[in-house]
Amino acid sequence: MSVCENCKKPLEVEIEPDEDEDIQMGGSSSKAPAAAPETYPDDVQLSCGCHFHWDCLLEAYQVTECSNCGKNIASTSSDGTQQVLCNLNNEGGLQENLDILPLLTEESYLKAYPEDRKNRAFLEFCREGDIKAIVGMLQDDDSDDEDEDEEMEGVQDESEKPVGVDAMLRYQDPIGDMQSGLHAAVQAQSREVAWLLLLLASNFPLTEIPPEVFQEAEAMGIMRGITEDKTDIRSLKDANGNTAEDLAKEVGGVWAAGWIGTGKLSM
């Protein structure tokens, strides 16, 4: 078996079984003996022929150059953009000619700015339309804000410091065309996320927000605070100068009726 060029260990990883998957014995409270770790491949083969564990590649990553042999691992895609192709073999199976440049770019950015990890996770949930995960993050960080003074007395990892709900709601992705959560919701065609962001991070008239949006937000324990002195999320523009409404015009779909030109997505 080939070994990782960085750590010189076999290209595999052991994964501990989830405790929740322990089998209950005979209806009693006793559990079966802990299962042994399972072994899966963990092999990233770059175009130069060098192999790495995924984490080892991230640790040694040098933009578009192999950290082991020094060869250029970048190529140009059919649409003229730069890519880094590899054969990735992991728990999910073998994926050939997979472009990992977006993942490498993101991980390199987060290594330099670990405090942005929560913000980027929030944007990803907006892109996925995962309303429960979004609310969970906002609630968690709201609790963190209350305890911030106590937490800051000790040493704290940058990625674990409270972000602040207002900052998270209005975060713009520096490696994703400066998109906001509202841009992400529009791209994902998620009206539910868009309504939530309008409720929490805009000055859109509360009287024009559907009652069911209020009811759902109240049930989840969140509501609009003071917004007059804060940036209205509808005014944020991406790297191309587009508001969420400009993007909605391009996307069409669910935004074609009742959203464009109504002030919901642009001031």
Map the helices and strands.
Elements: E1 12-15, E2 38-41, E3 43-46, E4 51-52, H1 54-60, E5 75-76, E6 82-83, E7 85-90, E8 93-99, H2 101-112, H3 117-128, H4 131-146, H5 148-151, H6 165-169, H7 181-187, H8 191-201, H9 211-219, H10 244-251
Antiparallel strand pairs: 1-2, 3-4, 3-7, 5-6, 7-8
In brief:
With 267 residues, the chain is of the alpha+beta class.
| Overall tally of structural domains | 2
What proportion strand?
5-15%
How many helical elements?
10
What overall form do the CA principal axes indicate? elongated
CATH architecture title of the largest domain: Alpha Horseshoe
Extract low-pLDDT stretches: 145-155
Which structural class is indicated by helix and strand composition?
Answer: alpha+beta
Biggest sheet, spatial arrangement of strands: 4-3-7-8
CATH superfamily of the largest domain: Ankyrin repeat-containing domain
Order of helices and strands: EEEEHEEEEHHHHHHHHH
Radius of gyration over C-alpha positions, nearest whole angstrom: 23 Å
Mean pLDDT: 86
Helix content: 25-40%
* Biggest sheet layout: 4 strands, antiparallel
The separation of the N and C termini measures: 60 Å
Number of strands: 8
CATH topology of the largest domain: Serine Threonine Protein Phosphatase 5, Tetratricopeptide repeat
Q: Please identify the top-level CATH class of the largest domain.
A: Mainly Alpha
Biased composition (Acidic residues): 140-157
Region (Disordered): 16-38, 140-162
